[in-house]
Specification:
285 residues, alpha/beta, extended
Length: 285
């Protein structure tokens, strides 16, 4: 499902006209001015899945931030928004194939990393509580306890529960807020599952970070299903050969001038992988 049809960026002349009227000279950088025009990008046209490929510093993340801000998409993590970002956005334009749903968002590596840290922090608290419950179970199971007053009722319940259950079942029953313990990769993948809803535009900034190759393949399947069956559109920045090989994806190579679409097998990183495995072909036999 296509929501964002195209996005237009200012050229060098338009940027110069704005910056030449800037009276203040205390700035070392006019970011994002010069970031996209230097790539000779005037317009990007989008498909259901569009990929921005390029090395570090190629402008992938900058373009996603520009898109997100101009389209007023939801976001969680802060980004490098300079004093000139607003002026730059006024020079940008876009066309829509249909109205943007409100649930669309940009998902960055920082979002996923913060989520994993939060889960880890919660699990540390859970682990502390679990250890306390282990001891509580032992104290209750072997206690010489006699019920005398209503104030003893809660302790009586604990004693009866401990004597009926194994230690692990006792802890599970009393640890109702237990966070499911997954690896970082599993939690990262879970984040995408939680945030991606049906019928919306999503910008994903290097979503392969923290994902094993196996999880990256699962993410490829997840994105494909969301685009094909859930009416979602994706614009993705990535180096991952697994994501680059997604069927039907339109790929812009930001390492070439002028920037133009390419087949995934033509990309430098993919060709490096190919040569590496060709050189070691015999070792796989």
């Amino acid at each position: 499902m296509i929501y964002l049809n195209s996005f237009t960026f200012p050229d060098g002349d338009e940027e110069f006209d704005v910056l030449s009227g800037e009276q203040r000279t205390c700035y070392d950088s006019y970011y994002p001015f010069g970031q996209v025009s230097g790539k000779e990008i005037s317009i990007l046209n989008f498909e259901d899945i569009t990929i921005l490929y390029g090395g570090n510093g190629s402008g992938k993340t900058t373009i996603l931030n520009i898109l997100a801000e101009k389209l007023s998409l939801k976001r969680e993590s802060l980004y490098n928004r300079s004093d000139f970002f607003g002026k730059y956005l006024k020079l940008c334009d876009f066309s829509l194939a249909r109205d943007l749903p409100e649930s669309g968002r940009i998902i960055t590596s920082d979002d996923v990393f913060d989520y994993m840290l939060n889960v880890r922090t919660l699990n540390e608290g859970i682990n502390t509580k679990r250890e306390a419950l282990f001891q509580e179970y032992l104290d209750a199971k072997y206690a010489d306890f006699h019920y005398r007053t209503m104030e003893d009722f809660e302790q009586l319940k604990r004693v009866n529960q401990a004597r009926r259950k194994t230690q692990s079942k006792y802890v599970r029953a009393n640890l109702m807020d237990n966070i499911r313990e997954h690896s970082n990769g599993e939690n990262a993948f879970r984040y995408f599952q939680e945030k991606v809803e049906e019928s919306a535009l999503y910008l994903l900034d290097e979503p392969e970070n923290s994902l094993s190759p196996e999880r990256q393949l699962e993410l490829v399947e997840f994105i494909g299903n969301a685009a094909g069956s859930l009416n979602c559109q994706f614009v993705i920045s990535t180096h991952s050969p697994f994501l680059l090989a997604m069927k039907g994806a339109k790929i812009y190579d930001l390492d070439t001038l002028p920037v133009r679409p390419k087949k995934w097998t033509q990309l430098k990183n993919v060709q490096l992988y190919h040569r590496f495995f060709e050189e070691h072909r015999e070792e796989f036999k």
